[in-house]
Amino acid sequence: MVMVVVALVVAPRNRRPSSALAWILLISFLPVVGLLLFVLIGSSKLPRVRQQRQQSMDELITERTQALEHAPQLPGAPEWLPAVARLNRTVGAMPLLGANDARLLTSFDEQLDALVAAVRDARRYLHVEFYILSLDETTSPFFAALSDAVQRGVRVRVLFDHLGSRPYPGYRRTCAELDRMGAEWRLMLPVQPLRGRYQRPDLRNHRKLLVADGQLGYVGSLNLIDPGYDKRANRRRGLQWRDLLAQVRGPVVRELDAVFATDWFSETDVLIDDPGETETLPDGRGELLAQIAPSGPAFRTENNLALFNSLLYYASKRVSITSPYFVPDESLLGAILTAARRGVAVELFVGVIGDQFFVFHAQHSYYADLLEAGVRIYLYPAPSILHAKHLSVDDDVAVVGSSNMDIRSFQLDLELMLMVCGRSFIEELRAVEDGYRAVSRELTTAEWSERTRRHRLVDDLTRLTSAVQ
User: Fold this and answer.
1) Could you tell me which of 166, 247, 248, 382 has the fewest CB atoms within 10 Å of its CB?
2) pTM surpassing 0.85?
3) Distance CA 130, CA 161 (A)
4) Are 128 and 159 in contact (CB under 8 A)?
5) With 60 as the cut, is the pLDDT of residue 13 above it?
6) How far from the centroid of its chain's Cα atoms is residue 104's Cα?
7) CB 302 within 8 A of CB 334
8) DSSP code per residue over 332-379
């Protein structure tokens, strides 16, 4: 009787019908396992205190940016951009800002060198936040620069995800080194029930950012760990993760700072409000419009999903999507298929290999529909894992950041995207996409139709697991 009540009354509450049905079937056919899983991961929202902290920070950010309520103008910007910026502002509190500059960093060595240089040049403070932060032979120059910064009086605050970082060999070394150098650091979303810290364990903070002195910022898909992720199996296969990192200057850097301040407040209950860190915007001389779009289970809505869908429906010429984990919900899949069927040239870059079995096969289950609608799918070659996450629309707007196009990123992970409008940035991202296309193999309908029955069955079964959220 208890199982029936949970399955029919509790499970469907505030869920999509597909997700509710998946839970009902799981609890009905595997009552003990299903109920235990529901107790463990049944809620896709963070504890109420964290939601309240997010709301209070959103209100504070909105209040402090009232003077920036009207979106700045940029000649040649699409007419629909203010509507998308207003959406981001409504759900995520951040306004669209002008006078920014940005460039893209595509190789790990270039990315690490830039982060090390930013740390070395910092004079007042550093805000460092990564889903995975690991001290290893490759990342040691970053930690050395961080230690030097502390020694010369720079205030260093560091956040990294507890369960995201803990599985890697460098976890204990990282904690010990941050203690040794005297940095202020916290684990994000710690799962430590004996210390009174607990929430659904697969709700994670997946953001990656760094801010130096409020003047220079970095945001993207990069985790601060060796690009082989410090695993023997990866080294044997020669696997290397390929990421994209955006370097930004101008007023939008303060929005990155506001995201860090929100996450710091969530973990410490301390509001960062040092003189000069939150009150004024840095001078901007760039030509780009930019806006930070945070999302995650602390918000009432699925902010990143709303952003992606809006951009897809406004697209008129071309859309390029890069996502290592592509398991769209019904609304996003519909937006992509609709764009392709109304004549928009849509392309999707994914890896020919994957590191997540269930996600990798679940995303395969969507390929037939995409190909039938005219979406061109490009398979990035092994041994690289294409880990970058970005979307470009026409010749006008792009988003780059940490969010995948899957249900985990829409509902379970705290994510961070940078939206940019400006020809120079779009051209730079197009060059990145051209580089992907030059080395990738295009998947054809004929090739995909020849996959084995076993492959089809695994794809279809793993697709079902994505609904249990």
Assistant:
1) 382
2) yes
3) 7
4) yes
5) no
6) 16
7) no
8) HHHHHHHHHHTT-EEEEEEESS-S-HHHHHHHHTTHHHHHHHT-EEEE
How is the chain split among helix, strand and coil, in percent rounded to 5? 45, 20, 35
Domain boundaries for CATH 3.30.870.10 within the chain = 48-85+95-290, 303-465
pLDDT per residue as tens digits for the range 43-87: 677 888 888 989 999 999 988 887 676 667 777 899 999 999 999
pLDDT, tens digit, 9 for 90 and up, residues 176-231: 999 999 999 999 999 988 787 887 888 999 999 999 999 999 999 999 999 999 98
Residue bearing tokens 């793993």: 462
Query: Can you state the angle between helices 108-121 and 140-151, rounded to 10 degrees?
Result: 10
Question: Could you give the CA distance from residue 142 to residue 237 in angstroms, rounded to a whole number?
Answer: 26
Determine contact, residues 397/318, Cβ cutoff 8 Å: no
DSSP states along 94-160? PPPEEEEEEEEE-SHHHHHHHHHHHHHH-SSEEEEEESSB---TTTHHHHHHHHHHHHTT-EEEEEE
Condensed to tens digits (0 to 9), the pLDDT of residues 129-166 reads 999 999 999 999 999 999 999 999 999 999 999 999 99
Terminal Cα distance for the chain, rounded: 23
210's enclosing H/E stretch is strand 208-212
Higher pLDDT, 431 or 281: 431
Asked whether 202 and 209 are in contact (CB, 8 A), the reply is no
CATH class entry, domain 48-85+95-290: alpha beta
Distance CA 39, CA 42 (A): 6
Q: What count of residues does the chain have? A: 469
What CATH architecture applies to the domain 303-465?
2-Layer Sandwich (3.30)
